[in-house]
Amino acid sequence: MLIPGYVQSDRILAAVIDEPYADRLGEALAGRQIADCLSYGSPFLPEGEPDATAVEIADVIARARSPLVAVIEHGPGWRRMHGAITAAQLLEHLLTAAETV
Fold this sequence. Notes:
By secondary structure, the chain is α+β, with helices and mostly antiparallel strands. It has helices spanning 5-9, 12-16, 19-25, 34-37, 54-64, 87-100; strands spanning 47-48, 68-75, 78-86. The longest helix is centred in the C-terminal third of the chain and has 14 residues, at 87-100.
């Protein structure tokens, strides 16, 4: 819903969008319910990196159509889960940031 199609087509572009722009994305969510923004039925848990930006996490959520992203650090031969980010947490972050802009 918030991630432009050209960003969804090329994940590298999600890293190019800066946080101030990402904060303004939250303005588009005013008055919407989480159910308006998500679809369910994903058979796997998508993953994001610990240093991912809000836009990168939003991109993972949009691509996977999942309300949850596991935050996983990868190394040579190992993986460590740091936690998870829900769509609700991400939306709250974006909306709060939009209020301060």
